[in-house]
Amino acid sequence: DYYKILEVDYDATDENIRLSYRKLALKWHPDKHKGDSAVTAKFQEINEAYNVLIDPDKRFEYDLTGIYEIDKYTLREYLARFKGMILTCNGLGISHTST
């Protein structure tokens, strides 16, 4: 889950995503942990998550089609992550026009 990788909420602003990315990129930069391939992999994962979430089109696509391991979410995380879908499925959040 890219949101968990960057340690941000699912409705995080671009600014929050940038700040978290910078903090994590500094912490996990391979130059600080010479020769540790696990750190390099973590750094690449952080970069991938950032590149998707900071781009509005890629983020929208990810939110629609991301692969979710639902059983790994707490109830609070699940409700926060899928609130738009839950509201839409229950008929809320959709505006109907009558003709």
How is this structure best described in words?
This protein has two domains: 2-67, DnaJ domain (Helix Hairpins), CATH 1.10.287.110; 74-99, no CATH class. Helix 2 runs antiparallel to helix 3. The chain has six helices and no strands. The chain is mostly helical.
Give the helices and strands as they follow along the chain.
HHHHHH
Dominant shape: globular
Counted by DSSP, the helix tally is 6
The helix content is 55-70%
Rg measurement, Å: 17 Å
The protein's oligomeric status is single chain
The CATH homologous superfamily of the largest domain is termed DnaJ domain
Largest β sheet strand count, sense and barrel closure: none
Concise description?
By secondary structure, this protein is mostly helical.
What's the arrangement of secondary structure elements?
Layout: H1 2-5, H2 14-28, H3 37-53, H4 56-65, H5 75-81, H6 83-89
Helix pairs in contact: 2-3
Structural features:
single chain; 99 residues; mainly alpha; Helix Hairpins; 2 domains; 61% helix
